């Protein structure tokens, strides 16, 4: 990693870049170890990231893609809310950009529109040391209601800012004391936020109000003091209030740790140096991202797919994508995609952006940092009011978990055409050509694998005072390098399973079957990964919700490989549609069979 700024050499920049990434990872570790609910402490369904004062993500933990690509929007609306409070202007969901905005937006520079009137000068008067904001509104910075986000403005104490508080006006760095130099943000999936069904993941919601408590950006902590009325309001609307209280405190602790660690870096290297590192890390990410896109041939690459019902109507819903490569820029256009639907597979625009960022990230080498600079080459075009740019009061709970997966898969189909145009088809009979970027950086176009399971297989079982939520793993696609992994989370999720011991200890449930199903793997020279089977018996009356996909349309193979098997869900042998909610009697067994991954290359003869 090189630097061009005077006084910041490549070694120092590399150390600081690693330090920033380390802060994000430590935030995530603290959150996981401090959380109360099994969905966070066992499954790690949470994310953490650092942002600069202009709302650009500079470092993230290796957590959940659907969270991370949308977090910039949370920081943006928090800063706008703080600026509005400072000026006395009204700021609510509609005035903060919720449900409105341009049809085309820069995925890597959404915060560009956020700079004016929302940086340190306008925000510090009403949001400063010790403030923590909470939100989950999908149309004002969130993605779906169970994902609760905490955003903390970071200010430096006098010593870390580069001056001695005993000596007025002294110090080697600018007087950063009291100014917002960045933000810490955590997002975690809370297993119940109220609404019409336990788990706040109903299959049959028709508008956002049925999906749970909506929290606009408000201060949960002000000047270090918990706002107990806000905390208790949130907890009172959950079926599991003690877990909500504990998980929120864990998120707040993770945000606070980020401020401490950033102050330590500033004290060691100087605030000005750390802020320069922010800018240089973003610049480096942008250079690497553009170098990758520049390897793709200019042109327009189209792809289409479908979602299997929306919970209201069990019919396929079309998704259309056109990817245009022009030099080192990439435009993803969803014109022609279905309008928003009656059910809850609609996507807020920020979730669509997350899926597009993930698709680009798949092409990038592992050493490229994931930050807003990396995604600067990407522009996303959506039609307001469409499936991928839903507006209030559309139901969106499944859009975050299922539509995001389908968006990512569809964009990757289009990008795969561009990669094939650059490298050749890359099949067994014609190995792909290596396509390299600049000699000083390892930018090489990969051959994309076959499709993975393409669904999160969301399973929710809840009763009186308890809620179990899990996304279930499946098969990943095979590639030219070898077979696809079995029983893994792929795409927009990056979580773990709930261990049987933890599940049975915490809930009135018993796991009766949990194994890989080798019959689901797509055939090929390199077979796809296998899906799994998980059967759970309810030991008490409960409510069941499933939000799944790939139950009719199989994950496709590549280079002549066969498709993976579709998934299947049932209760006591009675098949369920892909999206379903219903009562569950004590003694009933829910069985989820997840899809397998596609194979790569024609299967061996015989």
From TrEMBL:
Ranges of residues in domain Hydantoinase B/oxoprolinase: 9-421, 448-603
Gene Ontology biological-process entries: glutathione metabolic process
Bias (Low complexity) ranges: 86-104
GO cellular component: cytosol
Region of interest called Disordered, as start-end residue ranges on this chain: 85-127, 553-606
Pfam families: Hydantoinase_B
Coiled coil ranges: none
Name of the protein in question: Hydantoinase B/oxoprolinase family protein
GO MF, any single term: 5-oxoprolinase (ATP-hydrolyzing) activity
């Amino acid at each position: 990693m090189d630097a061009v700024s005077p006084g910041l050499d490549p070694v120092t920049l590399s150390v600081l870049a690693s330090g920033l990434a380390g802060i994000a990872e430590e935030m995530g570790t603290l959150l996981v170890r401090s959380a109360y609910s099994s969905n966070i402490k066992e499954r790690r369904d949470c994310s953490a990231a650092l942002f600069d004062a202009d709302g650009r993500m500079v470092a993230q933990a290796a957590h959940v893609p659907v969270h991370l690509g949308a977090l910039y929007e949370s920081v943006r609306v928090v800063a706008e809310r703080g600026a509005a409070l400072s000026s006395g202007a009204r700021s609510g969901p509609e005035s903060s950009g919720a449900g409105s905005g341009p049809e085309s937006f820069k995925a890597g520079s959404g915060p560009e529109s956020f700079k004016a009137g929302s940086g340190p000068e306008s925000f510090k008067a009403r949001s400063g040391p010790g403030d923590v904001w909470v939100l989950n509104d999908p149309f004002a910075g969130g993605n779906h209601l169970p994902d609760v986000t905490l955003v903390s403005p970071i200010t430096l104490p006098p010593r870390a800012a580069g001056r001695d508080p005993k000596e007025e006006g002294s110090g080697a760095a600018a007087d950063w004391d009291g100014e917002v130099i960045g933000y810490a943000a955590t997002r975690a999936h809370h297993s119940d936020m109220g609404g019409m069904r336990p788990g706040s993941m109903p299959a049959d919601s028709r508008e956002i109000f049925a999906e749970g408590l909506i929290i606009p950006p408000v201060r949960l902590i002000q000047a270090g003091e918990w706002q107990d009325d806000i905390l208790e309001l949130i907890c009172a609307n959950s079926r599991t209030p003690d877990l909500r209280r504990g998980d929120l405190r864990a998120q707040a602790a993770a945000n606070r740790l980020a401020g401490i660690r950033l102050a330590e870096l500033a004290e060691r290297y100087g605030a000005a140096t750390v802020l320069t590192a922010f800018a240089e890390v973003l610049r480096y990410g942008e250079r690497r991202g553009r170098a990758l896109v520049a390897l793709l041939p200019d042109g327009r690459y189209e792809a289409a797919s479908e979602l299997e019902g929306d919970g209201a109507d069990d019919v396929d819903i079309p998704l259309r994508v056109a990817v245009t490569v022009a030099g080192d820029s990439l435009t993803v256009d969803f014109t022609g995609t279905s309008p928003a639907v009656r059910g809850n597979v609609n996507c807020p625009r920020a979730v669509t952006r997350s899926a597009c960022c993930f698709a680009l990230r798949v092409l990038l080498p592992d050493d490229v940092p994931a930050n807003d600079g990396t995604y600067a080459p990407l522009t996303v075009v959506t039609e307001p009011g469409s499936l991928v740019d839903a507006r209030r009061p559309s139901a969106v709970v499944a859009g975050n978990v299922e539509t995001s997966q389908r968006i990512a898969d569809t964009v990757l189909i289009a990008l795969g055409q561009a990669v094939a145009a650059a490298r050749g088809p890359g099949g067994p009979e014609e190995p792909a050509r290596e396509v390299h970027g600049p000699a000083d950086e390892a930018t090489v176009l990969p051959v994309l694998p076959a499709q993975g399971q393409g669904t999160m297989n969301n399973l929710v079982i809840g009763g009186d005072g308890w809620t179990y939520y899990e996304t279930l793993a499946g098969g990943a696609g095979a590639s030219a390098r070898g077979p696809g992994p079995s029983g893994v989370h792929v795409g927009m999720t990056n979580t773990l399973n709930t261990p049987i011991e933890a599940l049975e200890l915490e809930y009135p449930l018993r796991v009766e079957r949990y194994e890989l199903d080798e019959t689901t793997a797509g055939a090929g020279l390199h077979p796809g990964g296998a899906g799994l089977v998980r059967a759970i018996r309810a030991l008490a009356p409960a409510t069941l919700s499933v939000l799944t996909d790939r139950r009719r349309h199989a994950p496709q193979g590549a280079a002549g490989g066969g498709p993976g098997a579709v998934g299947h869900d049932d209760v006591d042998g009675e098949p369920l549609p892909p999206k379903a909610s219903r009562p569950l009697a004590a003694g009933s067994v829910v069985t989820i069979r997840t899809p397998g991954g596609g194979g790569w290359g024609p299967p061996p003869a015989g």
